[in-house]
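Re: that chain you flagged

S.,

Sorry for the slow reply, it's been a week of failed gels. I finally had a moment to sit down with the sequence you sent. For the record, here it is as I used it:
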Amino acid sequence: MPKCIPKICPSPFVPEYLEIKRNCSSKNIGEFCEVSCKHGGKVSGTNTMQCLPTTAWSSLPDCTCPVPKITQSLVTLKENCNFKKRYEHCAVGCPQGYAVQTDGAFACLPNATWSSLPLLR
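Prediction finished late last night. Pasting the structure tokens below so you have them in one place:
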């Protein structure tokens, strides 16, 4: 005898910069899955995905990079670099008498972490 079974979404694929807050396997249509950013950044927009009638998940949230940690005391930020989006850059500078040894910017990488900070010379 035929019977009806609910449509469910499989566990969502999440990129390396996101983590699932609770178990999201076997969610029913209309249910939500909550995510957060792994590396201390903030979720851009909503922090949930919804199980759609097609049994696919709605679009993934994105993450920003965390607030950069400046460990070299003479390096200064030329702009507000808090919570930059992935692929964005942050410019740095040096006080008078110093120059940036490498490229004067660092980037928010695809995994929502910062590239290496430029060096002074």
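What I noticed first: The two ends are 78 Å apart (CA to CA).

Talk soon,
D.
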